[in-house]
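Handover notes (outgoing to incoming on-call)

Open items:
1. Isoaspartyl peptidase/L-asparaginase: sequence verified, structure written out, both below. Nothing else pending on this one.
2. Nothing else urgent.
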Amino acid sequence: MKLQVQPKLIIHGGAGSSLHGKGGLEAVRQSLYTVVEEIYALLLSGATASVAVVQGCQMLEDDPRFNAGTGSVLQSDGQIRMSASLMDGTSRRFSGVINVSRVKNPIELVQFLQNSPDRVLSDYGAAELARELQVPSYNGLTELRLQEWMQERHDNFKSTMAGVVAEPELVESSNAGRGTIGVVALDAYGRLATGTSTGGKGFERIGRVSDSAMPAGNYATSQAAVSCTGIGEDIIDECLAPRIVVRVTDGMSLKDAMQRSFAEADKNQRDFGAIALDANGAIAWGKTSEILLAAYHNGEKLGDTLELPIETDIGCIE
Ligand code: ASP
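Isoaspartyl peptidase/L-asparaginase structure tokens:
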């Protein structure tokens, strides 16, 4: 097949504070690279950006290391409630589910909702949809996330968020971090899409709504697409994804839009990260948190952001 443009791909597995052991880091890198390789090959074979994003999100939801789907963190009452969204930049259509339980892949429901007149469903409605679509009931609880929750309960829920990835050493240290996954793709026809899926920030109140199922955390036009991770309330307050996307749509370069948006976020003491692509094929990431677990493919090679200095705020490959 003849490519009209070189596909680009960037994915993330959350943002947060340092990843302690190197073992954890190498395992995370491997997990991310496996997804990047498979999804990039899919884009090369002519898959649309939306299809690639959904499939990438599914693979990351299925990896128990990340806080989405299997391996989601528990909320304050010990239950898993997941949120996810998809935005297709070409159709400019956003769909999402908020606080859905007992499904393996929330992104599948979100994909279905792209073509529905009602495109964002919360807990009860999402459960009804899963029932209608005959999605089998699934329990995404893992032993590590249960241990993490028990430890937090013991400490009276003093952490603001759950661990960035489910690694035994991190559970023991009960280190505050983030989770969540995201995929942003530019396909061979020049179309952009972005998807984000999360178990939430962990230990939150019942009914708390994550940015991951809002445009604030996941937004695309035909010019740019962004997926965010980190403290959802900070992402909502900055309206981060549309802030970056609209700047690019108005003519700013992706690099400048990221630089400006992250400088403002830094000033406001926000704690988050984001990954982004533009229609010209620029790949970018930014963070105010210590680390961002992102990996990308630019058509020539794989790369990642796992071992960058803490003070590095943004990166852009044009
Ligand atoms: N943004 C997600 C939330 O606040 C959490 C995360 O990205 O780890 O629900």
